[in-house]
């Protein structure tokens, strides 16, 4: 009978394959066999190993740390971060340390994008597809990075802004500027403050979309 962690890895294998990853053992690595390859128990420096090492187009891009079902994943991202820095020199890589890390029980999965201005793990419903992780490497692809460049309260509305004549700019920037690290935090701020003025709330959302490059 498989151990709880072995059972979790069996589920993770299925989840990875359903998202476009080809799972391989480290004894039979063929990085040219597909677009996305997940190597089980890949060797690292100092005789360490990671449960899964993810490759896209032949280059390492992320890791997956497997834990048994019911294991609390909070805090495990620190262990994943260590793996992302310990790659053997023989592995080609997109970046060093690796930009993406997952922790999974096969039932619950969390993801950390190290390219965020302030990287934090978050729960995800599934592993990202290989092509999605490649897109995340593109300049300006990271929404939180674009949010970090939002205008601050000391920056005036330019004359080219079509809303500049009607917006309460100070009120809008009070909502946007303090929460520049996360789009989720901004949305939460809008809800917590119960912004009732459409003159403030709707333009704030519009500015969020425009400044973050969504529209």
Q: Can you give a write-up of this model?
A:
The protein has about 220 residues and is of the alpha/beta class. The chain has 2 domains: about 5-140, tt1808, chain A, CATH 3.90.1570; about 145-210, no CATH class. The chain has helices at about 5-20, 75-85, 130-135, 145, 170-175, 185-190, 200-210; strands at about 20-25, 35-45, 50-55, 60-65, 100-105, 110-115, 120-125. The protein is globular, with a radius of gyration of 21 Å.
Q: What characteristics describe this protein?
A:
single chain; 215 residues; alpha/beta; tt1808, chain A; 2 domains; seven-stranded mixed beta sheet; 7 helices; globular
Query: How does CATH name the architecture of the largest domain?
Result: Alpha-Beta Complex
The CATH topology of the largest domain is given as tt1808, chain A
In DSSP terms (H or I, runs of 4 or more residues), the helix count works out at 7
What are the low-pLDDT stretches, counting only 5+ consecutive residues below 50? 162-169
Could you say how many structural domains there are in total? 2
H/E element sequence: HEEEEHEEEHHHHH
Spatial arrangement of strands, main beta sheet = 1-2-3-4-5-6-7
Using the alpha-carbon principal axes, give the shape: globular
Assign a percent range to the helix content: 25-40%
Structural class: alpha/beta
Mean pLDDT rating: 77
- Computed CA radius of gyration, to the nearest angstrom: 21 Å
Taking the alpha carbons of the first and last residues, their distance comes to: 52 Å
CATH class of the largest domain: Alpha Beta
What fraction of residues sit in β-strands?
15-25%
DSSP E strands, number: 7
Largest sheet: 7 strands, mixed
């Amino acid at each position: 009978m498989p151990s709880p962690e072995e059972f979790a890895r069996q589920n993770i294998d299925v989840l990875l394959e359903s998202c476009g990853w080809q799972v391989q053992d480290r004894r039979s690595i063929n990085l040219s066999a597909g677009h996305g390859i997940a190597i089980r128990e890949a060797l690292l420096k100092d005789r360490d190993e990671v449960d899964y090492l993810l490759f896209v187009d032949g280059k390492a891009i992320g890791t997956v740390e497997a834990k048994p079902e019911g294991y609390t994943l909070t805090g495990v991202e620190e262990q994943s971060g260590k793996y992302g820095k310990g790659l053997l020199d023989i592995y080609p890589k997109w970046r060093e340390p690796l930009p993406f890390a997952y922790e999974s029980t096969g039932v619950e999965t969390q993801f950390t994008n190290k390219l965020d201005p302030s990287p934090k793990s978050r729960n995800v419903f599934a592993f990202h597809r290989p092509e999605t992780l490649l897109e995340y490497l593109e300049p300006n692809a990271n929404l939180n990075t674009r949010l970090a460049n939002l205008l601050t309260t000391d920056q005036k509305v330019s004359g080219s802004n079509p809303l500049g004549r009607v917006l309460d700019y100070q009120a809008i920037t009070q909502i946007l500027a303090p929460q520049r690290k996360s789009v989720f935090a901004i949305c939460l701020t809008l809800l917590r403050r119960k912004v009732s003025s459409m003159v403030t709330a709707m333009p704030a959302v519009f500015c969020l979309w425009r400044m973050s490059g969504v529209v």
